[in-house]
Amino acid sequence: MNKANTEKNTHVHEPLVQVAKRDEMVWYKSWAVRAVAIILALVLCGLVIVLLTGYNPIQVYVSMFEGSFGSSRKFMNLLQKLSMLLCISLAVTPAFKMKFWNTGAEGQTLIGGLATAACMIYFGESLPSYIALPITALVSIFVGMIWGIIPAYFKARFETNETLFTLMMNYVAMQLVSFCIVLWENPKDSNNVGVINRATQGGWLPEIFGQKYLLNIIIVAVLTAIMYIYLRYSKHGYEISVVGESQNTARYIGINVKKVILRTMAISGALCGVAGFLLVSGTDHTINTTIVGGMGFTAIMVSWLAKFNPIMMILASFLIVFLERGAGEIATAFNLNESLSDILTGIILFFIIGSEFFVNYKLNFRNKHKEGDK
Fold it and tell me: Which residue from 5, 8, 103, 324 puts its CA 20 to 30 A from 168's CA?
């Protein structure tokens, strides 16, 4: 009797579903999971469109494609937006792969753009373009690098919280931009208000083959290839991976962790400086506190979705930019409130992010028949 009670009390009921860590999924299978998630999201969005507006969802989706591919101008704008988001995503990737939570890409890009604007204002018209542009690019890269090194130094030296530190530096960068805008404003000189050097285009990146943004796209494409090689095949890339896995292991095998942190954040800041240079000199030709447009935070999602792979970031960046532009086109074409387009974008992104659970984990269901046999 006691033995039966003991066996009954010690019997453990297994849960119906168990979540288990999945072995690394082959890249094409992981993207297949994401594709299924997008299809399901589109089905749900279609239901939302019908219920809230009564429009045909197919027509709405067609307008999304027209918003990005309806003309050569729209397509170039798509590539431009993609290249900027990709550039900032490349910037945050080394830090995140090292598990340095850099949430300051917005401010690092903004401060790089501020340096570009200053160079354009002070000597963009007085120096030839072949001299002014390289100097402007180097200054922007250097300033972005310094903005990235500051939190890295405090992290390496004093073990500060890099997430809060980099986040607060975003606000410092915004206030610096606001201060400089007021400083540079001159009602008697239209060159220093709004578009910088509108008449002379001093310090502007030149057009290539008649395409305004082509040089931006080429520069980011080259940076993508360089970062892929750097992270995957260089010694520095290996050190970043080891530090990200375990700082104690890195120290044990002789890696200078503090040096790696400083160097990696210098690279992140420098790439953000490049993005700021391309935004101000090659795209908007002005500076304001909203010029980055939240891409510093969106880039974090791009980097994580692509598993820190620069090549896969092209696809992730394209997807997000396509959705954003398509949502805007829906609001314009159907005269809808932009909130609806934001809802559709949010649904799709929710499904995409949720699909990462099934990429990384699998569900094991309890076999009821075997349990009954027992």
Answer: 324
